[in-house]
Amino acid sequence: MTAVDDRRVHTAFENLEVPEGFKAELIRGEIVMMAGPDKVHNRIVQSVQDQIPADRWERLQTQDVAFPAEDSEPQPDLVVMEIGADDSPGRLVPGPAVTMLVEVVSKTSVHRDYVEKRSIYAAGRVAVYLIIDPFEAQCLVLTEPTGTGLSADYQSKRTRKFGDPVPLPIIGIELDTSGFGTLPPLRAAP
Q1: Domains contained in the chain, number
Q2: β-strands 78-82, 64-66: how paired?
Q3: In this protein, which residues make up the domain named Putative restriction endonuclease (predicted)?
């Protein structure tokens, strides 16, 4: 993509009027729009937010994060950063201010959450990326980001089933997943 194209996409994204009940993200130069989440999704995000100590961590739901090197402005389900890491106004939190990002998988976000955002967040050096999958009833904790661009990834990967505690030592908690709701497994297309 050229610099002119980049500016056009960013201008279009900033001026986009998103219909009620939808959200939009900029993922590697592409504007992606999706329907709003269901109640299972929202309850999981709320549970995670409630377990993160508010005296040390700022916890922002659906906050846009800037990853300029990736030409991306994703809107994670939950952004966690140390209090005072970013006190600037505006809609964008700079990627380097973020300690943990949380995505709860939906029917339409599986590939984006597990593949695209994983490499974007790793390239942006987000210390912890937590993927919560209500279809598989599991959490994937990714730490130790490495690499750049499409090949960026996390060196450490831990999977925990719902009901098992999820250690998040950087945040200083063991996440209680026993109350997380589930959804029927997704079926692969024939």
Answers
A1: 1
A2: unpaired
A3: 13-176
Q: Please report whether residue 11 resides in a domain.
A: no
Q: What does the block give as tokens for 66?
A: 């800037």
In terms of residue numbers, what domain contains 95? Answer: 37-175
Residue-level pLDDT at 31: 77
* The token pair that represents 130 in the structure block: 């937590």
* Range list of H helices, the chain: 3-15, 39-51, 110-111, 117-123
Q: What is the CATH number of the domain that holds 62?
A: 3.90.1570.10
Q: Rounded to whole angstroms, how far apart are CA atoms 146 and 136? A: 26
User: Collapsing DSSP states into helix, strand and coil, what is residue 16?
Assistant: coil
Tell me if 12 is assigned to some domain.
Answer: no
Contact call for residues 160 and 177 (beta carbons, < 8 A): yes
Res 25: pLDDT: 67
pLDDT recorded at residue 188: 59
A 10 A CB-CB count for 39 gives 8
**pLDDT tens-digit profile of 115-157?**
999 999 999 999 999 999 999 999 999 999 999 999 999 999 9
Residue at 1 is within a domain: no
